[in-house]
Amino acid sequence: MKIGNRILLTLIIFAAGVSLAAAKSPPPGVGGAASVPANILIMLDNSGSMGWSNPSRMDQAKIVINALVTDPDLSSDVQFGLMEWNSQNPCVRCPIGPTSNNCIITTALPEIEANGGTSPQPAFVEVQDYFDGNSYNRCSGQGSCYYFPGAVNSCVVWSDSGSPIDPALACQVTAIVFISDGSYGGSPEIPAAQLHAQGIDTYVVGFMMGNNTNYNNLALAGGTVAPLYTNNQAQLLQALKAAILQIVASRQASSAPAVIPASYSGSGYILQSSFTVEGEHQWPGHLMKYELDGDAKPKPNPVWDAGEELDNRTAASRNIWTVGKGLCSGANLPSGINNFTVANASDLACALYDGNDTPYSALDTANLIRFVRGVDSYDEDSDGSILDERWKLADIYHSELRIVGPPALEVSGDAAANTGLYYRWQKGYETFKNANSSRPEVVYVGSNTGMLHAFDYATGEELWAFIPPAMLPRLREMVSFTANTSNSIYGVDGSPIVRDVYMNGNWKTVLISGMRQGGKSYFALDVTDVANPGYLFGFSNNPADGEVQCWDACGEWP
Fold first, then answer.
1. What is the number of alpha carbons within 13 Å of residue 497 lying toward its C-beta?
2. Whole-number Å distance between alpha carbons of 48 and 451
3. Which of 161, 240, 320, 461 shows its CA 20 to 30 Å from the CA of 452?
4. What residue ranges in 231-375 does DSSP mark as E strands?
5. For 221-224, which contacts have Cβ atoms below 8 Å and span 24 or more sequence positions?
6. Which residues have C-beta within 8 Å of that of residue 241, sequence separation ≥ 6?
């Protein structure tokens, strides 16, 4: 597609205001030319009560920790460490460092056992010594280091020193993730507050328990305001990943603008995307079109802001579509560009909750669909209503804009036979070009509510938004355990590519996009007629189980 006389700039601006529940991070802090991973010490309660339940709380926690340290979304952003603590001899099993993941997976998790009482204050003192570079307790061996030296097990404790904090890296962040399953004595909030004053925050996670004053006080002292309470293994994994991703996010709450030129030049307009990082809520996004003045500088007021345009229309008036065949009990979604609706909730439910271990209701499904469309189903504004509307455009993070207008490639019967010019002439591209000569210009871009948006270039109006089938089961990750909040996730985070393609005897304008941080998945759409787009195919790769999923033109997973 050739769009002359235009400048396309993508400007991404980050604002401060980050807290725990956001499930993704702004760009990583940079030290020199390399990304600086966050230092995260997991303080795992291995008191006797962690051996309760079947499977035991300890076994569930181990599975979750293993999943975290092997998560490819975190591998380049985090260096983990692991500490055990109960009522005596808290000790670091695996110091934070580049080889700590192997230590955690192969040594610490298989060896650590539940025993002893619950007293976190000495553990926080030990953590303070560790991060300060003073002498601290190291340990290894089968069992619990509750006993020292342990005659009933082989756990051995010794003295070590050295801090993982590099004072030369100003953008490096260090934090603590504290996991416990019951009440405790002592005053761990005192050393936690001292660590917070040093810039080391404590994220508190209560496992198999509800509201607890001690936990609330510890989170407040540790600089994270409120703890997260979880009742099962799945919730523990979600809460810990949310906390860890928020720690990563805290590396850079504000960055210099990043200007990314595309292949458009000339006539006097700039497209600019921006978003604001908001803790425990969706990240509001904007997409603005500015006219340039005679000095090629943007005029003060935008021609339009797609975020504002969306905010000025109702959620019900939007065209949001997806695909699915043989979903719940063999039901097929209706065709068209507005089938992601509450009216189709019973057909969408098993796709939205695919792989979910927690029971869900028809109301859960309806609320999720409404929220994705732009209704404040989870009362984020705390006004007591779940029927009012919220800001509808999410952050446009890594996705780069694409403007697509009428077909404009050249043809030539005199060109060499192996060239695109000749191929297009041979396959009748000129007829396709003429038939679509009045096609409107459209801006295609992905956002992190899980949608690829099509915006009218002239007005900024959203024409439609598409949710890839691979994205459907991830939408529920936006639902938070905490009232009046939600989790901001990665959605359609990749950049679309649009080409005119000859397929099955016809020319089509085809859009292909990946999901980047939103998942290892690609999808393709036929956007020849922007008013009647069509789904072509999609596929996803799950490296954890070596499985590739694919969806055909009907959205069916064969």
1. 8
2. 46
3. 240
4. 258-261, 269-275, 285-291, 304-305, 320-321
5. 221/189, 221/190, 221/192, 221/193, 221/196, 222/176, 222/178, 222/189, 222/192, 222/193, 222/195, 222/196, 223/196, 224/19, 224/20
6. 23, 68, 71, 74
CA 224 to chain centre: 20
> What superfamily would CATH give domain 30-249?
von Willebrand factor, type A domain (3.40.50.410)
User: pLDDT tens-digit profile of 201-230?
Assistant: 998 999 988 778 889 889 888 987 678 888
3-state secondary structure 262-302: CCCCCCCEEEEEEECCCCCCCCEEEEEEEEECCCCCECCCC
pLDDT of residue 159: 85
Report the run of H or E that residue 129 belongs to, with start and end: helix 120-132
Of 426, 436, 554, 454, the residue nearest 513 (C-alpha): 454
Helix (H) or strand (E) holding 459: none
Is pLDDT of 136 > 60? yes
Region at 87 (left for phi over 0; alpha for psi -120 to 50; beta for the rest): alpha
Shortest CA distance to 242 belongs to which of 482, 540, 492?
482
Give pLDDT, residue 273.
Answer: 83
Strands 451-456 and 442-447: antiparallel
Cα distances (angstroms) measured from residue 259 to each of 8, 262, 263, 351, 393:
10, 10, 13, 38, 21
**DSSP E strands: which ranges in 307-367?**
320-321
Task: Give me the pLDDT at residue 540, please.
Answer: 81
Segments making up each domain of the chain, as ranges: 30-249, 258-405+440-551
Q: Report yes or no: 25 and 246 within 8 Å, Cβ to Cβ.
A: yes
Q: How far apart are CA 296 and CA 344, in angstroms?
A: 48
pLDDT per position as a tens digit, 174-189: 999 999 998 888 899 9
Query: Radius of gyration (Cα) for the chain, nearest Å?
Result: 26
State the burial class of residue 177 (Cβ atoms within 10 Å of its Cβ: 0-12, 13-18, 19+): buried
Higher pLDDT, 366 or 30: 366
What tokens appear for 440 in the block?
A: 């409107």
* Cβ-contact 269, 289 below 8 angstroms: yes
DSSP state for residue 7 in the 8-state scheme: -
Distance CA 339, CA 446 (A): 19
pTM of the model: 0.58
Burial of 66 (0-12, 13-18, 19+ CB in 10 A): middle
Mean pLDDT of 99-124: 93
Query: Could you tell me the pLDDT band of residue 31, with boundaries at 50, 70 and 90?
Result: very low
Write out the two tokens for 141.
């061996």
Structure token digits, residue 500: 């005119």
